Amino acid sequence: MSDTQPNIGEMLLATVPMAKTLNLEVVEATADRAVLRLPDQPDFHNHVGGPHAGAMFTLAESASGAIVIGAFADQLGRAVPLAVKADIGYRKLAMGAVTATATLGRTKAEVVAELDAGQRPEFPVHIAITREDGAVTGEMTIVWTLRPQS
Length: 150
Prior knowledge:
Thiol Ester Dehydrase, Chain A, DUF4442 domain-containing protein, DUF4442, HotDog_dom_sf, 4 helices, 150 residues, single chain
């Protein structure tokens, strides 16, 4: 992005107020990978003192949105990105700060080719949620689409 255009993290925080509500930190956001961090905040703890499942879901969903913005920013004039469905599994107890790392499940070229062909492409984004010791506490897959604008 140029100096006059907002970066991916700024775009995410400007368009997704919930990310700001949870004080999510954009660690990295590119077309290839997005990493967001949920700081340890007592206001967002669950009954065992770790981050609430809803906060971790929002963290992961926000990371997926960041990579979608990064990968498809040049398509946003003609298509709207929308989450279609999500599947999350909580694997281990999360305590303290957690980080979500998102990667695309299809290449940008494949998705854009479908959009160019007049289709409404769908593509998965895979997210790993980890605690500070590196243990994976959750895994999520969100299927996104690029809905052509009329």
